[in-house]
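Readers outside the structure-tokenisation community will struggle with the description of the input data as it stands. Showing the layout once, in full, would remove most of the difficulty. For illustration, here is how one protein appears when written out as sequence plus structure tokens:
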Amino acid sequence: MAFMISRFRCAFALGAVVTSLVLLTVACEKVPLLAPTGSTISLTALSTALPINGTTSIIAQVIEAAGTPPHSGTRITFTTNLGRLEPSEADTDLTGRVVVTGSW
């Protein structure tokens, strides 16, 4: 038994699949990624001392419990009660790193 599909139906089916994949990709990008339970965040400041009104880069390295970085785009929120961190929210890169600027 052989099935025959016209070129029109084949093109229509292929178009529907591509459209579905594009919509799925766009929908996934709108959902913020969160690091799973058991993840650790290591903070490193590039400077050990700052003058008044000084700034330094703060690097956050996120590692999942399995020892791997989270997906690129995982949202990290920074808060402090001393000084200011800019931006207050940032997304990880492929290695699980985020760099923000701290000022005191």
User: Anything to note?
Assistant: Residues 83 and 104 are 4 Å apart (CA to CA).
